[in-house]
Amino acid sequence: xxxxxxxxxxxxxxxxxxxxxxxxxxxxxxxxxxxxxxxxxxxxxxxxxxxxxxxxxxxxxxxxxxxxxxxxxxxxxxxxxxxxxxxxxxxxxxxxxxxxxxxxxxxxxxxxxxxxxxxxxxxxxxxxxxxxxxxxxxxxxxxxxxxxxxxxxxxxxxxxxxxxxxxxxxxxxxxxxxxxxxxxxxxxxxxxxxxxxxxxxxxxxxxxxxxxxxxx
Length: 216
Fold this sequence. Notes:
The structure is a single chain. The protein has helices at 18-24, 36-42, 58-63, 80-90, 107-122; strands at 5-9, 28-32, 48-51, 69-71, 95-99, 126-130, 135-139, 142-147, 153-155, 162-170, 174-179, 189-199, 204-209. The longest helix is centred in the middle third of the chain and has 16 residues, at 107-122. By secondary structure, the protein is of the alpha/beta class. It starts with a strand and ends in a 7-residue tail after the last strand. The radius of gyration is 18 Å and the shape is globular. The chain folds into two domains: 5-132, Rossmann fold (3-Layer(aba) Sandwich), CATH 3.40.50.10240; 142-209, Sandwich (Jelly Rolls), CATH 2.60.120. Strands 1, 2, 3, 4, 5, 6, 7, 8, 9, 10, 11, 12 and 13 form a 13-stranded mixed sheet that branches.
């Protein structure tokens, strides 16, 4: 993996699965506030630690004294995660892995991570959001492929109407489909292996559960 791949350690849930370890292998790391606890679990040393540190316990700070800290006031115009992503981009990031972006106690933060990921994809960045057990990839006009285990579940919620949506190699394929905003038609599909997604216009997110094989 190149030095243009950055893993941003965020405050949500994170399970140490094989897919997670493979995804972050060889990447550089930046921690956002309390997301530094994942660095301890992963056995990695971030090159930067940003945030207002309102969710960082003293014992965590003591374990990473050598990591450069970039503090911000609590009353700021961006989340700690957004600041961490901006720092990664300034250091040359082209691929961003948002680890700990899904789940957790703050559903507002989880939703914002999804929206931000779509915005980053529209700017040309390659983005993966992961909790280890669940993964999310932005879907904007163009084509992407996800290598998912056969029988695993995935959904494609849209952040607006979708035009020309195609899903290949799935139990419920679609071809050049128009998805109205708010429709549940693309919830709970089943992968048949590597799934191909194409979109003509709109914004969506592919939410996959690669360890949930209940669709087998």
